Amino acid sequence: MIKLTQLNRIRNLPLQQMGAAMDNNGAAPGADTTKRTLIDKSAKTMFIAVTVASVIVGFSLVFAFRLGEQALFTMKVNAKKQETVRRLEENKKAFEELKRTVQQLQANQALNQVKAKPDDNAVRVILDALPDSYNSDALGASLQQKLLAGVSGLEVQSINVETIVEGKEGSGGSSSSSSSESANAAAINTSTAAKAMPFEVVVKGNTAAIKKMFENFNRSIRAIDITSVDLNGTETGDVSAKVSGVAYYQPGKKIELKNEKVKP
C-alpha cells in the first residue's frame, strides 16, 4: 500500500521536477555520495591490511635474523666443544705415552747408577741435569761442592756465575770462594728452549789436580760445555787455570685449564 502511494506521487510530479531529480548520468539522487563512501571504506580497509601485513613481515624478518644469529652462535659453540674434545683425546694419548716413557726411565740402569742418593728416583737425575729455572746460586754451589771440592792439590780462587734479575738489568750475586766475586745480569727469556748459564772458574794446582778437575766436569750429569781454557804456569811450579763454560736450564711448561667465552 505504501509503495503504491509513493508511485502515485511520482506519477503526479511535473516533468520538469522529474528532470531536476535526475543527474546528468541519469542516476538517482545520493548515488555519488554512496560510491565515494564505498571507495573511502575500501581505501581504509586496504591501508589497514597493508599496514598489518607490513608489521607481520617486519616481525618475521627480525625473528628470522635473530634465529639465524642464534644458529650461527650454536654452531660456533659446538665447534669449540669439538675442538676441546679433540685436545682432551690428544692429551690422553700423550699422557699414556709419557707414562710409559717415565716407567722405562725409572728402570734405566745408567740413570740409577748416577743417582745422588740411593732413595732418589732415577728420573730425578734428568731433572738435576737440566733444571727448569735459572738458579745461579745452585749452579755455583754445584760447581764448588760437587766438581771442585775434594780434588787433592786444587785451590779454588773464584767461581763467578752470571745471574739474572727479572725484568731489568743490574748486578746480581754470585757464588765465589774469594773476594773477586762478580756477576752480570740479563733479562729472563721466557722461551721453553734450553738456555745457557755462563760461568767462570779460576783455580790453581798441580797438573794432576787440574786433570782431575776436567774429569769431574766430563762426568757431571749436568749439561756443561767448556768454552775456553786459559792455562798459565806459576813460580811454584803449579798451574793456574781459568775455565769458562756454560751450563743449561730449560723453563718448565705449565699445564692449566682455561675458560673461553664464545661471543655471538
Furnish the topology, listing elements before pairings:
Elements: H1 2-12, H2 15-20, H3 31-106, H4 109-113, H5 123-129, H6 136-148, E1 154-161, E2 195-205, H7 207-219, E3 224-233, E4 239-249
Antiparallel strand pairs: 1-2, 2-4, 3-4
Would you kindly provide a brief summary of this structure?
This protein has 264 residues and is of the alpha+beta class.
Highlighted features:
about 260 residues; alpha+beta; Alpha-Beta Plaits; 4 strands; about 15% strand; disordered N terminus
CATH topology-level fold name of the largest domain: Alpha-Beta Plaits
**Count of beta strands:** 4
| CATH secondary-structure class of the largest domain | Alpha Beta
Shape designation = rod-shaped
CATH architectural group of the largest domain? 2-Layer Sandwich
Count of runs of 4 or more consecutive helical residues: 7
Q: What integer is the average pLDDT?
A: 75
SSE order in H/E notation? HHHHHHEEHEE
What does this structure look like?
With 264 residues, the protein is α+β, with helices and mostly antiparallel strands. The protein folds into two domains: 78 residues; 119 residues, Alpha-Beta Plaits (2-Layer Sandwich). It has seven helices and four strands, in the order ααααααββαββ. Strands 1-2-4-3 form a four-stranded antiparallel β-sheet. The protein starts with a helix and ends in a 15-residue tail after the last strand.
